[in-house]
Amino acid sequence: MSFKNNLTKIIYGITLLGLWSCSPRIDRLPGDFSARSQKDPALSGNGQKLALIVDQNGRPTVQLRDLRNGQILQLRHLSRYQPHSSPSLSWNARYLAVIAQQGNRRLAIIEDLLTGRSYQMTIPGARVPVRLSLSPDASKLAFQLAQKGKWRIELFDLTNKIDLDQPTLTSPGASSAINQ
Amino acid sequence: MKSSLVPFRFSLAALLLALTGCFAGEIRPILGLNPILAQSGNSFREPGLAMQWLVSLANDQGKERIEMIDLQRLRRVALPGINRIDAQPISVSVSADGQTVALIRQRADQTELLIYRRSSGALQRLELSPKGIPRRVSLDGTGRVLAVQVSRGGSWDVDIIRL
User: Fold this and answer.
1) For chain B, percent helix, then strand, then coil, each to nearest 5?
2) Which end of chain A is more exposed for a tag (fewer CB within 10 A), N or C?
3) B161 touches chain A (CB under 8 A)
């Protein structure tokens, strides 16, 4: 009888431990609690970096963070051209794409964090981008555009504009994510 | 006089280029893909690109649903069980291999954060702690890390969830 009781307790304990270890871990991103406004999160393909839009002196501004140590990474070109919206990162966060403002027009800017260069991308037909998404290898860019009263998504080729940011096998899960 | 200005102008242009970065100019649309997106007459928004996949919210006669397109085979991918007639999708993101989809949807008076796995067609609901209302989601390429924009007490937070 006592053996049965002990066995039941052990099974109960193992089940609880299993359930606890299976539940996802949630971390809240640290921020300035007096004026906290963190929007539009976008993870790099390897999950190590995060781009988001924060309120900087009343101007929506893109910020890049390293999730491994919480460090805010410096952006060379994107500290201008606010308001920013819809950031997107490539696999290793070599490229950060964002919709920005230059004069009276909205355009996409891609900053190459490896070389420090930036690229301004204009869309044929002078159309206005609303949201964007960069493919993990930085070969394609998808735009949400307004056309004839409807939202449209159009894809653009970047292979003749910038180098690829190929997924590396150093990040956990990368090989299985790529090879399927 | 004129010839002495040439190197000066050249160096000035080089300096401006170095300061402002590069102008990549007009980018080239991907032919073959855009007509597929334009074909249906639907409205598409919230693009999410993976290696070979594009997810978006498609509006078909006033009703929004999550849609995935295989960019290599140029065709729509079935996502059985992901769309419900009584739910309105708000945000969607996909892993690099297209196997895992993260989504936020409004259902009755609930805003739900969910993970959809294509291999099983199963939806898993994720609870936020502390409680909040999810608004936008980003899934990393490996399908193991989620970043979620959450409304809490009148401000916007970003939660990082490791699955």
Assistant:
1) 15, 50, 35
2) N
3) yes
